[in-house]
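Lab notes, practical 5.
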Amino acid sequence: MFLRKKYITILAHILLWASLGFIFIANTPLMLGIIFPKEYWIKQSVMFLLLIGLYYLNSGILVPGLLYRQKPVKFIVLHIIIITLLLLGGLIYDNWTHLSEGIAQSINDKFEGKLLIKLRGLKIDTTLLLTSCLLVGLSTSISITRLWQRDLLKSQQLVQKQLDSELSFLKAQIHPHFFFNTLNNIYALTFIDIESSRASLHKLSRMMRYLLYETQSNRTSLQKEIDFVKDYIELMQLRVNRHTLIKFEEPGIIAEKSIAPMILLPFVENAFKHGIHSVNESSILIKIRQDKDLLILEVENTLFARREQDIDDGGIGLSNTRRRLDLIYAEQYRLVCGPDEDKYSVRLELEL
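Output from the prediction step:
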């Protein structure tokens, strides 16, 4: 693909110079139907080659080295010098070869040579002057645009690199946080029910496989993410007391979409962390719905006064999840969470 683009660029340059060369060198003689002297062809050919050199000198060195580095005065002065030298060289050649007289003999009396203007008694080749200015302006515009695109690409790559680094860092923080809580739960369960602890370890191993293989990239399937959340809820149900009611509603039919891994779990984990009381009645309601490209997560748990501040702080997992949502989905999500009387609710709407 890169080679094809390179060849297309080279071909475009060749076609451009061929067209400009025809106009600059051969257009006038062919249009008038007059045979110009050989000195004319030599001059126009040499000058055209010098103009090509000026184009690439300006595009490759002068624009990035002077104009793009905020040195416009040097840039302008240098171009005035170069174009003046070209005009002077053409004038010297004209006088040395008597080109004007040669052309005058080849055309009708009503033509006085090429398009000429007089400046302080000197005959200035306005065709060369205008062509030089045109090529300088063209090469400057193209070079500036290319440099802007290059800098924009570098900036985008830098932002993407920073994004990838932040996401890796955030996921690395979430995983230990999750395992720390879960392993503590299983450890406590081993003193009460060995069979339940074995079932918990089995579910945890399945969840670990998800973390090992599905979080290597920044996307996973929606079905796997929901299954992961479901495993977590079932694992947590093994340790809750009889005073806690847990209700989970999952979508009946899932239209397969991609989603950032571990983006839903922290909200569910937060409900279990703050919504369960050892003595008082408590409840946790978790709903996951899908409406075409919109995924809706609703989490509601009992709010205990002494834990309200802890919930607002969010913990490591929840605060990092907010950051991940900002990085990955930007304007494609809506998160509303906070206390409502004796409940703490979370509603996440995510455009997949």
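Observations recorded by the TA: Residues 2-154 form one domain. The mean pLDDT is 79.
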